[in-house]
Amino acid sequence: MGGWWPALAAAAEGLTPIPFGSETVVQLARALAADVYVAPDTTLPAALAGANYDQYRDFRYRPDQALWRDLPGVDFQAQFFHRGFLFKPRIEIHVVEGDRARELPFSTSLFNYSPNPTPALDDSTGFAGFRLHAPLNSHEYLDELCVFLGASYFRAVGKGLAYGLSARGLALGSGDPGPEEFPVFRAFWLHRPEPGSTTITVDALLDGPSVAGAYRFQIQPGEDTVFEVDARLFPRVDLAHAGIAPLTSMYQFDASDRTGIDDYRPSVHDSDGLGLLTGTDEQVWRPLHNPSSIQHSGFQDRTPRGFGLMQRKRGFDDFEDAEAGYEKRPSAWIEPLDDWGAGEVHLVEIPTADEYQDNIVAFWRPAGALKAGSESRWRYRLHWTATKLWKPGLAHVAATRIGARPGEDRSIRLVVIDFEGGDIGTDAPQVEVAANIGRIANPVVHARPGGGWRVGFEFAPDGRTSSELRARLHRGGAAVSETWVYRWSA
After folding, report:
1. Handedness of CA 398, 401, 406, 412 (dihedral sign)
2. How many CB atoms sit inside 10 A of residue 453's CB?
3. Which of 26, 209, 219, 316 is the residue whose CA sits 20 to 30 A from 191?
4. What is the pLDDT of residues 464-486, one digit of tens each?
5. Would you give the end-to-end CA distance of the chain in angstroms?
6. Which string of b and e fits 366-380 if b means at least 16 CB within 10 Å?
7. Which residues form the Glucan biosynthesis periplasmic MdoG C-terminal domain (predicted)?
């Protein structure tokens, strides 16, 4: 082991296996938090320091060297990422077998560098991260299932899906005026799966200037790939605005948000809405927005039942992009496993002029600060899914469209919301619409060709620059749809 943290300096030398238990990483995180922060080593060997993006892409792991490739009955394999380009920190990779752990040694023989020459590197070079493969779409082939690479970022796919949004271990300062802090998963422990097992366990050690943490991921691939996450945090300083279970995505435009867009495609995004299932059992849908300046939205709650950044559009004709395949990007749904108390689901929307920058962040922000020297635990399931409907009996928002109302006063907006599915019945429901600023006029609901219900109303902002809009279908006072909420901005 590298011994870059004091808690492990005397634990082992070389590649000798050492004892490992369920509390080992927790003990390491607790010891790290009690000591002075030491930044990870980002110094690259000379042979890697000048590698550009194209050269780094040529550093390909050899599939025939995959971890567990030759284990009979084991349906998981691991491959590893080279250091270089943007991925400079040396990340320790350990393999757990039974109650012992050993560090996985680096070697250039694990990689194919062609057409570049094989660099002269020793076993201290280490790795940048890893990916797991499993039989996701068929039993005959091991698909790439998930990736852990860069800071505390990771992402995964369900059956038939492709990579899109990412998750993180922790968010600190996302969208705030000051610099954002990016803690790093500095070491991983990959548990060798038992033959026939449908899940795999990964432990991770988080470290940053403000906090250390121990994470356990129990990963099960499938139609929905599910991560069961157990995160234990040990702050070095008071964390007043910690982001728990953060998700990071991209939203550029859609039918509700095309001002200034000159693009042949009808929409471009990895996610089109924030979904909420509140502690009072209200299902909420908040369409995403590409604002002109950074927007923060807080949805206060107690004991939340779930939240996520969702991609509801699933047809090629929703995007008309044969290369990006946005209709195959997964949704990510967070399901707390404990009482998370009071706080808010916090949404950050950052302006973007293109589709290459992640500009959307969502996370749980506890009402109280995480105090220095304390320990907090956050357990949740993370579903990577295409079809998650947390209350299928309610009609859900299928599309939001906003444009100028025909007529002389082009400041008046015409808002159209399509609802689909649920046990809504055949008789037209009633609609309730509200705005905290401005005026609502002429709300109507009628059957939509092809099925479902369409809500339309006029919104007059009265010269104001923003307003919170809200709509819901009901029958006899009982909700028959989820609640649509939207921040309109000029």
Report:
1. positive
2. 22
3. 209
4. 888 999 999 999 889 999 999 99
5. 56
6. beeebeeeebbebbb
7. 20-488
